[in-house]
Amino acid sequence: MKKNLTFSKLLMLFVIAALPLSMMAQEGKKHAKPAEKYWYIQADGGLSINHGDLANYNGGIWGDFDHFKRTVTPLENLNWNAHFGIGYQFGKVIGLNLKGGYGLLSGHKHKQALVLNSAPEGRTYWNLGLDKTNYFEGNLNLTFNLFNLFNYNPRRVINLVPHIGIGGIYYKAGTVNQLDADDNVSKVRANQKSERELSYTVPAGMEITFNLAPKFDLFLDYTYLFTGTDNLDQVAKIKSDEDKHIINDKDMYGQFNLGLRVKFNDPCDIDKMARESKKITYRVNPDPLVEGEDGNVCFDVIVTIPSEYFEKKAVMNLKPYLAYNGGQIDIDPITFVGEKVKGEGDFRVNYKEGGEFTKHYCMPYQEEMANCELKGDPMFYVYDGTIYPTQDEIVKNSYYTQGATEKLADGVIAYCNAPTNVRPSVNENTVTLTWDGDADSYDVVLMKGNEVVQTVNVTNKNYTFNELDFGTTYQVKVISKCSANNAESQPASFSTEASVETPADFTFFFPKDSWDINKRSINKSVRAAMVEKLKEDPEIKGFKVEGWASPEGEDEHNENLSENRAASAKSDIEKQIKKAGKKVQNFEINIHGNGPDWDTFMKEVENSDLPDKNAILSGIRNSNNKEKTIKEMILIYPQLENDILPMIRRAEVSIIK
């Protein structure tokens, strides 16, 4: 019975109850996701389901789908309908559409007393069938997106959308046939109407939509249409056989359709942009950041946005900042705007092309920048007429989505300034250097003339050189060492104090290129003096022997020669100990070969009466091959070989007590 169609009644109650809720839902949160408003067209088609008097309800709701006429091939009598429509979505929940279409209805009814609307009152019929009522219809529907009442999401895959409306049907009622027990036509009870009739309709239904893409929805719709006529099937029902009371209930029909909707929207999916924010690539030049000579940290942030990524009405605020342990230093954000944004940002991004964009920064160096990372936080929002310069203002005034935080570059390498105020403090042949500077480490370079004597690296701001040559002038410079640069101080000069030389107790002399101690007669008197000293002084505990060579030969040769002379002197000392009546094992004898004696040679030349001694000294000091230069000088100045060099080929013996 039509009065027992509880599904349609419940649907109506649900829609009426949902209407005020939908109005309330428009308020939402203060910064709710912005609603998309758009026009759309749609087309749908599917089954027409007769809910009139000639319809089989024995199967309950599912009996609605028993819409085939059993007397012929089902496909020839399929009750179908199709529509085309246009609509507009006003916001998150409410929409409106206008659609028109064409359809067919048929059906049958057994075990029910029926009367023909055109027959005399009181004439009843049983087992009638309807053959193809066809109709044109149009209706205006108000739609409600139930899921968006509670959580607006224009990209939700599935939505539940009830609708209610008002419309009209322009129909031509089909033939009414008498059916036998096998549903075969036995007699025509009412011919198809020759003229079409017009009546109003009230459509109400439910739609399940499937979001295929931002501009396309697939939907499944089930709609009941209440009509203002009881003549779609040309018959009416009788309440009971006893009172023959005719019920003037109106006919209804349903539609179960599959459709496609094309939306003329301009979607701005900032949620997708945030999810896929790692498609954006970042470079910084230089990386790591570097402090310049002017004390500023300058760099370029280079942002590459891929094609078909940046929504046309979207705005991205990139917030760069220097993060260090315990805090961060914010720097000016970069604003990117889509191609349809009317406001101005730092850069405008074309949706199809994307692009590469460079922002230059300069800021004073701060100590916190030494160990930090340059990071960036992208934030997205839909342009609402205002460009917000900071992310705090975006949070305060607009719905937004947050992209992934990106590391852009490593922290700042500080610029080295040259050390200043290099201060030498001399104590005999030791000098302590101090200076001022701001580098991580320093190279301290000690020089004698143009020759580098020693280089050391230190992390503090002082260093001490020990055992320098007495009475010698040195230069020193300090170099700041940084990853960014090196910076050199002005050279500072100092002189060690003159030494109080203690002459050797005994000196053995040797011929050129020889360590034979017996070839120089002068050594006889040295031996005699040593024996006498051993006899007179019982406190002697040993001897220290220093071997030397003259500097005109190769270094390696002179090293060996000086060692052999020291060893030869040791052997001779042992002999003299025995001559003095003492035991050799009771004495300590230390020997050392010193190689070529440059210092003594230079002093002897300086103290000599050679007329060109200054030229000789200068030539040797500035020479890249001093040994070769001496050999050339010997040929020019024989006095070097005759008077100076023989006195350098020696072994000095000092008494140890």
Describe the sheet with the most strands.
8 strands, antiparallel, barrel
What is the strand arrangement across the widest sheet? 1-2-3-5-6-9-10-12
What is the gyration radius calculated from CA atoms?
Answer: 56 Å
- Computed structural class: alpha+beta
| Shape, principal axes of CA atoms | rod-shaped
Number of helices: 9
What does this structure look like?
This protein is an alpha+beta fold. It is built from 9 helices and 34 strands. Helix 7 packs antiparallel against helix 8 (626-636).
Keywords:
single chain; 657 residues; alpha+beta; seven-stranded mixed sheet; 9 helices; 34 strands
Please outline what is shown here.
The chain is of the alpha+beta class and 657 residues long. It is built from nine helices and 34 strands.
Secondary-structure topology with pairs:
Elements: H1 6-25, E1 38-50, E2 80-89, E3 94-109, E4 114-116, E5 128-144, E6 158-172, E7 175-179, E8 185-190, E9 197-213, E10 216-227, E11 235-237, E12 252-264, H2 270-275, E13 281-285, E14 296-305, E15 314-324, E16 327-330, E17 334-338, E18 347-349, E19 355-364, E20 372-382, H3 391-397, E21 401-402, E22 406-410, E23 420-427, E24 430-436, E25 441-448, E26 451-458, E27 462-465, E28 473-481, E29 486-488, E30 492-495, E31 506-509, H4 522-536, E32 542-549, H5 555-579, E33 588-596, H6 598-607, H7 613-621, H8 626-636, H9 639-644, E34 650-656
Parallel strand pairs: 17-18, 32-33
Antiparallel strand pairs: 1-2, 1-12, 2-3, 3-5, 4-11, 5-6, 5-7, 6-9, 7-8, 9-10, 10-12, 13-14, 14-19, 15-16, 15-17, 15-20, 20-21, 20-22, 23-24, 24-27, 25-26, 25-28, 28-29, 28-30, 31-34, 32-34
Helix pairs in contact: 4-5, 7-8
